[in-house]
Amino acid sequence: MHRLLALYGMPTDPEQFRRHYESTHIPLGRKIPGLKGLRWSLNVQGRGGESPYFCIAELDFESAEAMQAGFASVEGQATAADSPNFATGGVTVVHYDVPD
């Protein structure tokens, strides 16, 4: 399995982020071809203090190639293009193979 991890920084308007993320961005993401799993949290805690992240999302794909194909699709491009509409605190994206 291959996982994409999106780490969203603190937005300028947390409620606007929350509304847009849940009503628009997540439904867009669910349409990405090859997506095997999608999890997110808007309740991110830091170890021993505040978290530098407001939201964390995990998207699972069969392989790195499946992820790349998914994000190259119309649906994947629409999902990626939506981020500036709510992610005013920035987003860091990493991806990696998940060991069996």
Explain what you see.
The mean pLDDT is 96. This protein has a domain at 1-7 and 15-47 and 57-83: Alpha-Beta Plaits (2-Layer Sandwich). Helix 1 (14-29) runs antiparallel to helix 3. With 100 residues, the chain is α+β, with helices and mostly antiparallel strands. The protein has a four-stranded antiparallel beta sheet with strand order 2-3-1-4. 34% of the residues lie in helices and 31% in strands.
Q: What is the CATH T-level topology of the domain at 1-7 and 15-47 and 57-83?
A: Alpha-Beta Plaits
Provide the low-confidence segments as ranges: none
Spell the H/E element sequence. EHEEHHE
Helix fraction, binned, reads 25-40%
Can you give the mean pLDDT?
96
Q: What percentage of amino acids are in beta strands? A: 25-35%
Helix and strand topology:
Elements lengths: L1 E8 L4 H16 L5 E7 L11 E9 L2 H9 L1 H9 L8 E7 L3
Antiparallel strand pairs: 1-3, 1-4, 2-3
Helix pairs in contact: 1-3, 2-3
A few lines on this structure:
This protein is of the alpha+beta class and 100 residues long. The protein is built from three helices and four strands.
